[in-house]
Specification:
The complex is a heterodimer.
Chain A lengths: L1 H11 L6 H24 E7 L2 E6 L1 H24 L5 H15 L1 H14 L8 H26 L8 H18 L3 H20 L7 H21 L1 H4 L29 H4 L7 H26 L2 H11 L1 H6 L4 H27 L9 H14 L4 H17 L7 H15 L21
Antiparallel strand pairs in A: 1-2
Helix pairs in contact in A: 2-3, 6-12, 6-15, 6-16, 6-17, 7-8, 7-9, 7-15, 8-15, 12-15, 13-15, 16-17, 17-18
Chain B lengths: L6 H5 L3 E10 L2 E11 L4 E5 L6 H8 L7 E8 L2 E4 L8 H4 L2 E3 L12 H7 L2 H7 L4 H5 L2 H21 L14 H14 L4 E5 L7 H18 L2 E5 L3 H7 L2 E6 L2 E6 L1 H6 L1 H8 L10 H8 L4 H19 L1
Parallel strand pairs in B: 3-8, 3-9, 6-7, 7-8
Antiparallel strand pairs in B: 1-2, 1-4, 4-5, 9-10
The chains are: A mainly alpha, B alpha/beta.
């Protein structure tokens, strides 16, 4: 009796394969692939001569695509049937993420140390430092948007507006009033924060999709104003000759005008254009770290907890006597302020800004960084920024497949980690001992 | 809350609702309802579904602005007119805290955090609107410590101290109900409004809830306003019961009085004929209290329903 049931169990380990549904599924997938491939790869236009276009057909390519999808789908489903759903890979990823969230402090220290050492690594080049600077701008923007989206739960699709406001504030202050980067920085943040409040007022009663639509519109309004208000912003020509940051008043230049000491003269170094690149890198690193420190700290203050409470349940917040207006506006203002800081850094780094730099795709990228990283997770933002900004760069070798790889990576993240790379949320305070140690 | 309360002070109502009416377009959800609630007392509002109980609560806690009526809260010798205070300010100004029929905890935050968020306003002041807090001044740190102690006190009372760091969403249902009550109490209210706190609780949890509410009444010197369907809770602990039906107040008195009230029995058990032949003439006849058979059988049914839950 026992032996018989044991036999049955051992037989049950190898499940039977049901071919009919498998084949049907694979045929459907192959058919869809053929349909898609027909216009995409099956037809190709070419120049007949005299400006006319002819069409070349590649039905062999269509057949290859269809057959490839058919075989791939069949193989995948077969594997699933032979080895029923094992979540080992998923579990490994999850446990990796759990390990990551427990080791936040060592990871952070290692990350900062690496970021600080990056310009001096033997393998680093000017290109790498520039890429690092770009990544850090997005990290800072991601951290700023994280306040609004991750903590306060207000979906903002127009965050780039504050980035633009910060950049133009600095550019205009520098052009018309002769402000230097450091003098203009606080004003950029302040003006952007005011714009955050201006955006905040009309959207106080909105949530979710409706809020997203209004913020999207706000972002576009700012861009279009910049584009059309030519007398102030230079319109599509933008603003050029924005002053570069100085090292406490020492400019980075080969030769300075009368009475001004340059950086390399002051320190008795050989002039190198890399000095400025490295300095700029450290400026954004410091600004980003400051943003992070500020956010981590304010999250543990009553205002930070009120943001999170608002994200969880606005009605309950009202019943507890929390003023939703001030809580929302403060989230918008502080998020916008960091966007403004990042914008003015962007302006000083590029030396030239135009509305081209502040399109919706920027907002979408920043939001993608926050969502992919895991809403509210500071470390997740860093990982996602590295992934999203540097992946297209490394993909340059693949030329036209770059965006394809990029899209596939994003889909992959959403499939395996639907709540973001790091979805763990550390409580702002604990009664018991901290298990993370 | 206050140290010494004289007998005279107790006689002053904590909350006086006068002629409260709430209309939504053509629908009158609450129709000319008046009642009073006292400190150190549990006042229950009962009534069939759709009687307007939660609407009364929403008017009291500022979620609705009443169409007409006067809502007077007596606090520290002054009279606050609730209908004139902006919604979210009622919790702090008038000291009214509430819970919700469908639990509204901050699900993604821990139990302790829920209780700390409830102390937002005093903490915000102590943090110098975040400036002192950002700088980590001792003034803020001691205020936060005090807030945590207060939260710990309530966690002890509701028996959730060892699960304080759990996400609120991961707590069992009964614990979530208790946590929501504790969160309301952390605001330091003068009047606690509970919207069906026993809904979905098993009999043992219900009994624990009774105990908790009685101990709050005994120790906190606050008034409790209670909407409840669970008669074991209502009849077991209320000092005072108000019955609403179709937006009107149909009875007001001690649990024993309300239980015996024919109007209440009719509202709860309906007035249709028991054996199903709902002839109009008979229905009219039934409204007369002289119809002995029907009323007494209904009365017994309701009475036994109350009795079996009384223990």
């Amino acid at each position: 009796m026992t032996a018989a049931s044991g036999l049955a169990v051992s037989q049950a380990v190898k499940p039977p394969v049901f071919w009919a549904p498998l084949l049907k599924d694979a045929i459907v997938a192959g058919f869809v692939a053929v349909l898609l491939a027909l216009p995409l790869v099956g037809l190709q236009t070419y120049d007949v001569g005299g400006g006319a276009l002819g069409i070349r057909t590649h039905f062999d390519w269509v057949a290859i695509a269809g057959a490839g999808v058919f075989c791939g789908r069949l193989g995948l489903r077969l594997l699933h049937q032979l080895y029923p759903r094992r979540t080992s890979r998923n579990a490994a990823l999850t446990s990796l993420a759990a390990w990551g969230s427990r080791q936040v402090v060592p990871i952070t220290i290692a990350g900062i140390a690496f970021a600080a050492a990056l310009p001096f690594l033997p393998s680093s080049s000017r290109y790498l430092i520039d890429l690092g600077t770009t990544v850090l701008i997005y990290v800072m923007l991601g951290w700023g948007l994280n306040v609004v989206v991750g903590l306060a739960g207000l979906l903002d699709l127009g965050y780039v507006a504050f980035y633009a406001v910060g950049a133009y504030t600095f550019a205009l202050l520098a052009r018309d009033l002769g402000f230097s980067f450091w003098e203009a920085l606080p004003f950029s943040g302040l003006v952007a924060a005011s714009f955050g409040i201006i955006l905040g007022f009309p959207v106080l009663r909105l949530r979710g999709d409706y809020l997203a639509i209004v913020t999207l519109g706000f972002g576009e309004i700012i861009r279009i104003v910049l584009l059309n208000w030519a007398s102030a912003t230079g319109g599509p020509n933008g603003i050029s000759d924005i002053p570069r940051p100085t090292f406490f008043g020492l400019p980075f230049a080969r030769s300075a005008p009368e009475g001004v000491t340059t950086f390399h003269q002051f320190f008795g170094l050989e002039f190198s254009p890399e000095h400025r690149v490295i300095f700029i890198y450290f400026v954004i690193l410091a600004m980003a770290l400051l943003t992070n420190a500020f956010t981590l700290r304010i999250r543990k203050l009553p205002i930070g907890r009120a943001w999170e409470a608002l994200r969880e349940d606005e009605v309950a917040c009202r019943a507890l006597g929390i003023n939703p207006t001030t809580v929302k506006l403060s989230a918008f203002a502080i998020g916008a302020m960091f966007g403004g800081f990042a914008g003015s850094f962007f302006a000083t780094r590029q030396g030239f800004i135009s509305p081209e730099s502040f399109t919706f795709i920027e907002s979408a990228t920043i939001l993608a960084i926050v969502v992919l990283g895991g809403m509210g997770s500071q470390l997740g933002v860093v990982l996602a920024a590295i992934l999203l900004v540097s992946l297209p760069e490394f993909g340059r070798a693949f030329a036209e497949f770059r965006m394809l790889i990029f899209g596939a990576a994003m889909v992959g993240v959403m499939v395996w980690r639907p709540r973001g790379l790091i979805s763990h949320r550390a409580p702002t305070l604990r009664l018991g001992a901290d298990p993370a140690g | 809350m206050n140290s010494a309360t004289t007998a005279a002070e107790t006689a002053v109502p904590l909350l006086a609702v006068e002629h409260l009416t709430m209309r939504f377009g053509g629908l009158i959800a609450v129709d000319d309802v008046s009642f009073t609630a006292y400190r150190d007392e549990i006042t229950a509002i009962i009534g069939p579904n759709g009687a307007g109980k939660t609407t009364v609560f929403n008017c009291l806690t500022g979620f609705y602005r009443p169409s007409t009526g006067r809502l007077a809260m007596h606090k520290n010798g002054e009279i606050l007119r609730l209908e004139r205070i902006e919604g979210f300010r009622i919790a702090r100004r008038a000291g009214i805290a509430r819970t919700f029929q469908n639990i509204r905890l901050f699900a993604g935050m821990t139990g302790l955090e829920n209780l700390i968020v409830a102390q937002h306003n005093p903490l915000m002041k102590a943090s110098g609107f975040s400036l002192a807090g950002l700088l980590g001044l001792p003034r803020y740190r001691s205020a936060e410590q005090a807030a945590v102690e207060r939260a710990r006190h309530w966690l002890d009372r509701i028996g959730l101290t060892d699960r304080a760091d759990w996400l609120a969403a991961s707590l069992p249902y009964g614990a979530q109900r208790r946590l929501e009550i504790a969160r309301a109490l952390c605001t330091g209210p003068a009047l606690l409004c509970l919207d069906e706190p026993a809904a979905g609780l098993n009999p043992r949890e219900s009994a624990e809830l009774n105990e908790l509410l009685l101990s709050i009444r005994a120790e906190e010197r606050i008034g409790i306003l209670l909407i409840e369907h669970d008669m074991s809770v209502v009849m077991g602990i209320s000092d005072h019961v108000i019955v609403l039906d179709y937006g009107r107040k149909i009875a007001d008195g001690t649990p024993a009085e309300v239980r015996a009230d024919p109007e209440v029995i009719r509202a709860y058990l309906g007035e249709d004929d028991v054996d199903g032949s709902a002839a109009p003439a008979k229905a009219v006849a039934q409204q007369q209290p002289q119809e002995p058979a029907a009323v007494s059988s209904q009365g017994q049914a309701l009475g036994s329903r109350f009795r079996e839950n009384d223990g």
